[in-house]
Amino acid sequence: MRAVVVEEFGVLPRVQQVGEPVVGAGGVVVKVEATGLCRSDWHGWQGHDSDIVLPHVPGHELAGTIAAVGEGVRGWAVGDRVTTPFICACGVCEQCVEGNHQVCPHQLQPGFNYWGSFAEYVALPFAEVNLVRLPEGLDFDTAAGLGCRFATSFRAIHQVGRVEAGENVVVFGCGGVGLSAVMIAAALGARVIAVDTNPAALELARSYGAADVVHAGPEAVREILELTGGGARVTMDALGSNEIVQDALRALRPRGRHLQVGLLPAGVQLDVSRLIGQELEWLGSHGMAAHSYPEMLDLVASGNLRPQELITRTIGLDEVPGALDAMTAGTPAGVTVIRPQGITA
């Protein structure tokens, strides 16, 4: 099969012919019809993830059809249309039994722990726990973006952040995660302020429901405080940087809630005295379990959530190395979807 292969961290990957994955007991092999290009893939390519062993195939948010079913897998068959969370949980540990698959200590992540979906086929472990059946009306391109960015934002905003109608929510970073968060928070009735350096990303944020947009920079916090009458109830770092974290915490009103979704490979400095004195909440959020998908899928089916509108570009495997490299200069506006089987009209 054809796949994008990273042979050296930070060096442009190449599309190569490699062996197809072999189905394992309890797992499946999926023919990848669509897979998203995510900033987490860029972090992995740069060597920010200690789980990655070279050579490596990135890719962790995907949708496709089952091509092979492993021994012991019940309820799934070749040809079924599926997606999966990027965190493939074991299903039997204490956290999984309690329903917290997204923090399973035995989790396996395609594109990080093993070869991922920037390829024509990908293996998925623990299939019965992690596969999500796609509704007939949901296309592969849209479904691919659900497994990481959209589902992550849905759980962060709705379940972890507890966002309610009427609350001021500030989203820092308007890539795929941030724009998803803008759309979801607005659908919940929140007043959303989007912050980014990219004017095109801010325009997209406005079209997805942001009431106000702020250009990131030295005056951003002052503008947010003015727009919110003293600070937001909820802030979210959807990109991952120490500077954003500081702005996000300073933009909160007392007893506000900060959501950290963006990765922070270089670490972060926290003003703990401010966290204590203002009774601020720092909330980490990491993906979403497969069993939590029905509520999100129902909102997509009803039209209240429109993840398909986030897709701004569709490319083939040969364009992936260049697209990955371009992320070094910043996260592009919207969501880029890769079709490993080739672009078709």
TrEMBL record:
SUPFAM superfamilies: GroES-like (SSF50129), NAD(P)-binding Rossmann-fold domains (SSF51735). Keywords: Metal-binding, Oxidoreductase, Zinc. The keyword Oxidoreductase applies. Its cofactor is Zn(2+). InterPro entries: ADH-like_C, ADH-like_N, ADH_Zn_CS, ER, GroES-like_sf, NAD(P)-bd_dom_sf, Zn_alcohol_dh. Signal peptide: none annotated. It comes from the Bacteria. Pfam families: ADH_N, ADH_zinc_N. Residues 10-338 form the Enoyl reductase (ER) domain. Belongs to the zinc-containing alcohol dehydrogenase family. This is Zinc-dependent alcohol dehydrogenase family protein. It comes from Kribbella sancticallisti.
